[in-house]
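Exam revision sheet. Question 4 asks you to relate a sequence to its structure. Input first:
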Amino acid sequence: MGNGQQDRSSWSELIIFSVAIVLILVGVCLYISTTLRRPESLSMVDRGSFPDLSTKELSPLRAKVVGILRQQFAKPQPGTYYSQGEKQSWCVNFVSWVAHEAGASLTNPHNGGWRISGVRSLEAYYRAAGRFHDRGDNYHLQPGDLIFYDKGSQRDEHVNFFLKYDKGKAVTIGGDEGDTIMVQRFDFGNDGPIKGFAALE
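Answer key, structure tokens:
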């Protein structure tokens, strides 16, 4: 075999080897990316624990909302699942989705759909409906109500669900908290300002 043929054979083998390496690297990257996006990978995050909360004395709607929240906490989905495929901040989308699943859909004033995506838009919706209570209104929170956080709070502008009080702190559950669904405890006196609350019904 001539030197020219040997060179061509070596180059072909090198090209094939290089392409194979590139394909392997691409496959590894895709696998890692897909794995990190799976809800199972969130099991490594401390998401709190869903509280012991009886629904016997709640209204049918509140009981249904608590049940949905319990289910989603047990098996959280990516944010796009609650946002109709949109890649965006999704705490309000999660609220909209839960309300929709519970049969109490919100109505977006701009397009008539069930999903509202902005904290301020959601606040305006509840104010217009007469169900928003400012912090100083002495409103008594009930399971399934919403808490609206202000800038400068521990959570900045944000919204999540109230579940119960525990040792003087509000136990909450919300979407887009650490890019997942979390149960946390909030001290109204020390964790920063809130705008107010929205009544589920």
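Marking note for examiners. The beta strands are 132-134, 146-149, 158-166, 169-174, 182-186, 194-198.
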